[in-house]
Amino acid sequence: MPSPRPASTAPSLAPAAAAATLFAPMKLAIADDHVVTLHYRLTLDDGSIADQSFGGDPLVYLHGHRNIVPGLERQLIGRLPGDKLEAVVPAAEGYGEYDPTNEQTVPRNAFPPEVELKVGMSFQTRARNGQTIPVWIRAVAGDQITVSANHPMSGQRLNFQVEVLEVRRATAEEKKHGHVHGPGGHHH
Ligand SMILES: [Zn+2]
Fold this sequence. Notes:
The chain is 11% helix and 32% strand. It is mainly β and 188 residues long.
């Protein structure tokens, strides 16, 4: 005599587990000392695209080491791979407010003679304490060249569109150096 089938319909893991992956690895959220891979587009308030990685290699950076503008870094905390977001960053948290006292007019012969000087070109100079600082040409008027230590995008609100691609923990060496090693990072 056949035994009756058990009436119980208690869930069993086996059939579902065979049909689909039940346990995916934990996604790491963006936090200090994590290496983040992302695509971004930076649009200024006039609608112009100042910079973007979409269509090219993504940006790879070490989070929490001021490798990107502070306002964007702050708004990325807790984001996960796959997240898409818009981040509006005021100038003060971007490339800084424009400081007119950070400007200087110098004679043409302060620059290498063979270089054709154009607005927006960057050079480096030394501060009184010996530190190297970047400067940008702001105006060219004959022999008088105005240089500015303000970043060309200072005073501007930055509108970022971001797609987070990957997040991983930084290695001890990356943390010590303050930057990413390997693909998209430093090779040394
Ligand atoms: Zn390094």
